[in-house]
Amino acid sequence: MTSELVTLTDAHLSDMAAFKKELQDAFAVAVVDEFGTLPDGPIPSDQVLDAALAAPGAVVLRILADGRKIGGAVVTIDMNTNHNSLDLFFIKVGEHSRGLGLKAWLAIERRYPQTVTWQTHTPYFEKRNIHFYVNKCGFRIIEFFNRHHSDPHQSGAPDDLPGDGEAFQFEKVMRSP
């Protein structure tokens, strides 16, 4: 693991174009690894990203290593229930395999110590994410969404990821309510 200091800062509006591009580039790696090519347009689409960034309660964070931008996250914080979600999380292409993702996740946990539970999700084909969330961060898989068991939070419109909408839902219990 690297000795770099990983911190978080609120993302600025002027950084949103770079944030989105870096996130899409990071997500594209897994899609290309699994399917060989990208579908038309970036993954996730600008429309999906814009909705996530503007969602009620969303906080857009930049992940820094020794002060330089190495990734980002979008979390939704529910101040009433403290049941929070990690909606998007990425480490920039070229910054992987040095322990920065785990350090970033631990920084998010420290930033929101009142959290009762965290939930997140990842496509079924993203084995690296599954390993990260379960084996490194301490989440557990609580649900598998597929054509026989759809995600109740999806609006009915398919998301823009390949794989027929199959995804895992994860949860990490931080403390008793």
Classified by CATH, the class is Alpha Beta
Structural class: alpha+beta
- Parts with pLDDT < 50 across at least 5 consecutive residues: none
Give the overall average pLDDT. 89
Radius of gyration, taken over Cα atoms and rounded to an integer in Å: 16 Å
Estimate nothing, just give the exact number of structural domains. 1
Q: How is the biggest beta sheet arranged?
A: 7 strands, mixed
The CATH architecture category equals: 3-Layer(aba) Sandwich
Strand order of the largest sheet: 1-2-3-4-5-7-6
CATH level-3 fold name: Aminopeptidase
User: Ends: how far apart?
Assistant: 33 Å
> Helicity level, as a percent range?
25-40%
What does this structure look like?
It is a single chain. The protein is α+β, with helices and mostly antiparallel strands and 177 residues long. The chain has one domain: Aminopeptidase, CATH 3.40.630.30. 29% of the residues lie in helices and 29% in strands. The chain has helices at 16-35, 46-54, 100-111, 127-136; strands at residues 6-10, 58-65, 68-76, 83-91, 117-123, 140-145, 167-173. A seven-stranded mixed β-sheet has the order 1-2-3-4-5-7-6, with helices on both faces. Helix 3 (100-111) links the parallel strand 4 (83-91) and strand 5 (117-123). The mean pLDDT is 89.
